[in-house]
Amino acid sequence: MIKDLHVRVEDKEILNGVNLTIHPGEVHALMGRNGSGKSTLSYALMGHPRYVVTGGQILYKGKDLLQLPTDERARQGIYLAFQYPVSIPGVSVSNFLRAAVKARRGEEVPVKEFRKELRTHMGALGIKDDFLSRYVNDGFSGGEKKRLEILQMALIKPELAVLDETDSGLDIDALKTVAEGINAMTGPDRAVLLITHYQRILNYITPEFVHVMQDGQIALSGGGELAHELEARGYDWVTQELAPTGAV
Fold first, then answer.
1. DSSP of 113-155, one letter per residue?
2. What's this model's pTM, rounded to 2 decimal places?
3. Residues 45, 163 contacting (CB under 8 angstroms)
4. Read out DSSP for 5-25?
5. What is the pLDDT of residues 154-189, one digit of tens each?
6. Cβ pair 1, 204 in contact under 8 A
7. How far apart are CA 26 and CA 179, in angstroms?
8. What's CA 83's distance to the chain center, in Å?
9. Neighbour tally for 204: CB within 10 Å
10. What is the maximum span of the chain, computed from C-alpha positions, in angstroms?
Protein backbone atom coordinates (compact mmCIF):
# COMPACT_ATOMS: atom_id res chain seq x y z
CA MET A 1 0.00 0.00 0.00
CA ILE A 2 1.31 3.43 -1.00
CA LYS A 3 -0.09 6.23 1.12
CA ASP A 4 0.39 9.96 0.49
CA LEU A 5 3.84 9.40 -0.99
CA HIS A 6 6.01 12.46 -1.68
CA VAL A 7 9.33 12.08 -3.50
CA ARG A 8 11.89 14.61 -4.64
CA VAL A 9 14.86 14.35 -6.96
CA GLU A 10 17.60 16.81 -6.00
CA ASP A 11 15.64 19.98 -5.23
CA LYS A 12 12.50 19.19 -7.24
CA GLU A 13 9.46 17.41 -5.84
CA ILE A 14 8.17 14.89 -8.39
CA LEU A 15 5.54 12.93 -6.47
CA ASN A 16 2.99 15.00 -4.61
CA GLY A 17 0.91 12.58 -2.59
CA VAL A 18 0.51 9.26 -4.43
CA ASN A 19 -2.03 6.80 -3.07
CA LEU A 20 -2.23 3.28 -4.49
CA THR A 21 -3.18 -0.14 -3.14
CA ILE A 22 -2.27 -3.34 -4.99
CA HIS A 23 -3.35 -6.78 -3.79
CA PRO A 24 -1.84 -10.17 -4.71
CA GLY A 25 -3.11 -11.46 -8.04
CA GLU A 26 -3.97 -8.03 -9.42
CA VAL A 27 -2.63 -6.42 -12.57
CA HIS A 28 -2.53 -2.62 -12.50
CA ALA A 29 -1.56 -0.36 -15.42
CA LEU A 30 -0.12 3.07 -14.64
CA MET A 31 -0.35 5.50 -17.54
CA GLY A 32 0.53 9.16 -18.06
CA ARG A 33 2.57 11.65 -19.99
CA ASN A 34 6.34 11.94 -19.86
CA GLY A 35 7.35 13.70 -16.65
CA SER A 36 4.17 12.84 -14.77
CA GLY A 37 6.05 10.77 -12.16
CA LYS A 38 5.50 7.17 -13.31
CA SER A 39 9.15 6.10 -13.35
CA THR A 40 9.86 8.08 -10.19
CA LEU A 41 7.29 5.93 -8.40
CA SER A 42 8.99 2.74 -9.59
CA TYR A 43 12.43 3.92 -8.43
CA ALA A 44 11.06 5.03 -5.08
CA LEU A 45 9.52 1.59 -4.59
CA MET A 46 12.93 -0.03 -5.10
CA GLY A 47 14.82 2.48 -2.94
CA HIS A 48 16.96 4.27 -5.54
CA PRO A 49 19.14 6.66 -3.48
CA ARG A 50 18.59 9.58 -5.87
CA TYR A 51 14.84 9.48 -5.21
CA VAL A 52 14.31 10.86 -1.71
CA VAL A 53 11.03 10.13 0.06
CA THR A 54 9.98 13.29 1.91
CA GLY A 55 6.62 12.06 3.17
CA GLY A 56 4.14 9.21 3.19
CA GLN A 57 4.38 5.44 3.55
CA ILE A 58 5.00 2.31 1.49
CA LEU A 59 3.76 -0.81 3.25
CA TYR A 60 4.54 -4.23 1.79
CA LYS A 61 3.47 -7.48 3.43
CA GLY A 62 3.00 -5.56 6.67
CA LYS A 63 6.51 -4.07 6.58
CA ASP A 64 7.61 -0.48 6.23
CA LEU A 65 9.41 -0.69 2.89
CA LEU A 66 11.13 2.64 3.43
CA GLN A 67 13.20 1.11 6.21
CA LEU A 68 14.65 -1.59 3.94
CA PRO A 69 17.67 -1.22 1.62
CA THR A 70 17.23 -1.98 -2.07
CA ASP A 71 18.74 -5.47 -1.94
CA GLU A 72 16.45 -6.48 0.90
CA ARG A 73 13.40 -5.19 -1.00
CA ALA A 74 14.42 -7.45 -3.89
CA ARG A 75 14.86 -10.43 -1.56
CA GLN A 76 11.41 -9.73 -0.13
CA GLY A 77 9.96 -10.30 -3.60
CA ILE A 78 9.86 -6.93 -5.38
CA TYR A 79 11.21 -6.80 -8.92
CA LEU A 80 11.76 -3.78 -11.16
CA ALA A 81 12.16 -4.15 -14.93
CA PHE A 82 13.88 -0.99 -16.12
CA GLN A 83 12.83 1.18 -19.04
CA TYR A 84 16.49 1.39 -20.08
CA PRO A 85 18.35 -1.72 -18.81
CA VAL A 86 22.07 -1.10 -18.33
CA SER A 87 24.83 -3.21 -19.87
CA ILE A 88 27.28 -5.13 -17.69
CA PRO A 89 30.35 -5.94 -19.81
CA GLY A 90 32.28 -8.98 -18.61
CA VAL A 91 29.31 -10.63 -16.88
CA SER A 92 27.62 -13.39 -18.87
CA VAL A 93 23.86 -13.68 -18.95
CA SER A 94 24.09 -17.20 -17.52
CA ASN A 95 26.16 -16.15 -14.50
CA PHE A 96 24.03 -13.07 -13.95
CA LEU A 97 20.79 -15.04 -13.89
CA ARG A 98 22.18 -17.73 -11.60
CA ALA A 99 23.42 -15.09 -9.13
CA ALA A 100 20.02 -13.36 -9.21
CA VAL A 101 18.18 -16.61 -8.49
CA LYS A 102 20.55 -17.47 -5.65
CA ALA A 103 20.09 -14.02 -4.08
CA ARG A 104 16.31 -14.27 -4.30
CA ARG A 105 16.00 -17.85 -3.00
CA GLY A 106 18.76 -17.53 -0.43
CA GLU A 107 20.57 -20.68 -1.53
CA GLU A 108 22.47 -22.15 -4.46
CA VAL A 109 20.23 -23.82 -7.04
CA PRO A 110 21.51 -27.19 -8.35
CA VAL A 111 22.96 -26.74 -11.83
CA LYS A 112 20.73 -29.35 -13.47
CA GLU A 113 17.57 -27.86 -11.95
CA PHE A 114 18.61 -24.33 -12.88
CA ARG A 115 19.40 -25.23 -16.50
CA LYS A 116 16.11 -27.07 -16.97
CA GLU A 117 14.06 -24.18 -15.64
CA LEU A 118 16.14 -21.65 -17.57
CA ARG A 119 15.71 -23.40 -20.91
CA THR A 120 11.98 -23.80 -20.37
CA HIS A 121 11.56 -20.05 -19.95
CA MET A 122 14.00 -19.29 -22.78
CA GLY A 123 11.92 -21.42 -25.13
CA ALA A 124 8.74 -19.58 -24.16
CA LEU A 125 10.42 -16.22 -24.87
CA GLY A 126 12.04 -17.31 -28.13
CA ILE A 127 15.58 -16.89 -26.75
CA LYS A 128 18.40 -18.87 -28.40
CA ASP A 129 21.08 -20.78 -26.48
CA ASP A 130 23.95 -18.46 -27.51
CA PHE A 131 22.22 -15.69 -25.58
CA LEU A 132 23.54 -17.18 -22.33
CA SER A 133 27.22 -16.64 -23.16
CA ARG A 134 26.79 -12.99 -24.13
CA TYR A 135 27.51 -10.18 -21.68
CA VAL A 136 24.46 -8.68 -19.97
CA ASN A 137 22.78 -6.17 -22.33
CA ASP A 138 26.10 -5.54 -24.08
CA GLY A 139 25.19 -4.83 -27.71
CA PHE A 140 21.65 -6.09 -27.16
CA SER A 141 18.75 -4.82 -29.23
CA GLY A 142 15.80 -3.26 -27.43
CA GLY A 143 13.83 -6.49 -27.79
CA GLU A 144 16.69 -8.60 -26.41
CA LYS A 145 17.02 -6.35 -23.37
CA LYS A 146 13.32 -6.62 -22.59
CA ARG A 147 13.31 -10.39 -23.10
CA LEU A 148 16.15 -10.67 -20.59
CA GLU A 149 14.15 -8.62 -18.07
CA ILE A 150 11.17 -10.94 -18.44
CA LEU A 151 13.41 -14.03 -18.31
CA GLN A 152 14.91 -12.78 -15.05
CA MET A 153 11.44 -12.16 -13.66
CA ALA A 154 10.33 -15.66 -14.63
CA LEU A 155 13.28 -17.20 -12.79
CA ILE A 156 13.19 -15.19 -9.56
CA LYS A 157 9.38 -15.30 -9.27
CA PRO A 158 8.72 -11.96 -7.55
CA GLU A 159 5.54 -11.30 -5.63
CA LEU A 160 5.34 -7.73 -6.93
CA ALA A 161 6.64 -7.06 -10.44
CA VAL A 162 7.01 -3.40 -11.42
CA LEU A 163 7.50 -3.13 -15.17
CA ASP A 164 8.64 0.33 -16.24
CA GLU A 165 7.69 0.86 -19.89
CA THR A 166 8.49 -2.68 -20.89
CA ASP A 167 6.92 -1.97 -24.29
CA SER A 168 9.41 0.82 -25.06
CA GLY A 169 11.37 0.16 -28.26
CA LEU A 170 9.68 -3.14 -29.09
CA ASP A 171 8.42 -4.09 -32.53
CA ILE A 172 5.07 -5.84 -32.73
CA ASP A 173 6.49 -9.39 -32.67
CA ALA A 174 8.73 -8.69 -29.67
CA LEU A 175 5.83 -6.94 -27.93
CA LYS A 176 3.63 -10.00 -28.30
CA THR A 177 6.38 -12.33 -27.03
CA VAL A 178 7.16 -10.16 -24.01
CA ALA A 179 3.45 -9.77 -23.22
CA GLU A 180 3.00 -13.55 -23.35
CA GLY A 181 5.90 -13.91 -20.91
CA ILE A 182 4.30 -11.44 -18.53
CA ASN A 183 0.92 -13.15 -18.79
CA ALA A 184 2.53 -16.51 -18.01
CA MET A 185 3.86 -15.04 -14.75
CA THR A 186 0.57 -13.64 -13.48
CA GLY A 187 -1.30 -15.59 -10.83
CA PRO A 188 -3.04 -15.39 -7.46
CA ASP A 189 0.22 -14.85 -5.55
CA ARG A 190 1.80 -12.26 -7.83
CA ALA A 191 0.86 -8.62 -8.42
CA VAL A 192 1.94 -6.61 -11.45
CA LEU A 193 2.29 -2.85 -11.83
CA LEU A 194 2.70 -2.15 -15.55
CA ILE A 195 3.90 1.36 -16.38
CA THR A 196 3.25 2.51 -19.93
CA HIS A 197 2.50 5.51 -22.13
CA TYR A 198 0.37 3.67 -24.61
CA GLN A 199 -2.58 1.34 -24.75
CA ARG A 200 -0.96 -1.03 -27.26
CA ILE A 201 0.62 -3.45 -24.73
CA LEU A 202 -2.76 -3.61 -23.02
CA ASN A 203 -4.08 -5.31 -26.16
CA TYR A 204 -2.14 -8.35 -24.92
CA ILE A 205 -2.15 -7.86 -21.14
CA THR A 206 -5.51 -7.17 -19.52
CA PRO A 207 -5.31 -5.08 -16.34
CA GLU A 208 -8.04 -5.10 -13.72
CA PHE A 209 -7.20 -1.50 -12.87
CA VAL A 210 -5.87 1.44 -14.87
CA HIS A 211 -4.52 4.59 -13.21
CA VAL A 212 -3.56 7.89 -14.79
CA MET A 213 -0.72 9.86 -13.24
CA GLN A 214 -0.66 13.61 -13.65
CA ASP A 215 1.50 16.20 -11.90
CA GLY A 216 2.90 13.65 -9.46
CA GLN A 217 -0.44 12.23 -8.35
CA ILE A 218 -2.81 9.52 -9.47
CA ALA A 219 -5.46 11.73 -10.96
CA LEU A 220 -7.91 9.13 -12.25
CA SER A 221 -8.51 5.39 -11.82
CA GLY A 222 -10.80 2.92 -13.51
CA GLY A 223 -11.06 -0.46 -15.16
CA GLY A 224 -9.47 -1.65 -18.38
CA GLU A 225 -11.83 0.49 -20.43
CA LEU A 226 -10.02 3.61 -19.16
CA ALA A 227 -6.97 2.72 -21.27
CA HIS A 228 -9.12 2.63 -24.40
CA GLU A 229 -10.64 5.98 -23.47
CA LEU A 230 -7.16 7.47 -23.14
CA GLU A 231 -6.10 6.03 -26.49
CA ALA A 232 -9.12 7.58 -28.16
CA ARG A 233 -9.18 10.95 -26.38
CA GLY A 234 -5.65 11.62 -25.14
CA TYR A 235 -4.36 12.87 -21.80
CA ASP A 236 -5.84 16.35 -22.21
CA TRP A 237 -9.21 14.67 -21.71
CA VAL A 238 -8.18 13.74 -18.15
CA THR A 239 -7.38 17.38 -17.37
CA GLN A 240 -10.76 18.43 -18.73
CA GLU A 241 -12.57 15.71 -16.79
CA LEU A 242 -10.98 16.85 -13.53
CA ALA A 243 -11.46 20.58 -14.12
CA PRO A 244 -14.05 22.24 -11.87
CA THR A 245 -17.37 23.03 -13.56
CA GLY A 246 -17.07 26.34 -15.38
CA ALA A 247 -13.27 26.31 -15.41
CA VAL A 248 -11.56 27.36 -18.62
1. HHHHHHHHHHHHTT--GGGGGSEETTT--HHHHHHHHHHHHHH
2. 0.90
3. no
4. EEEEETTEEEEEEEEE---TT
5. 999 999 999 998 888 788 888 888 899 899 888 899
6. no
7. 16
8. 8
9. 15
10. 67
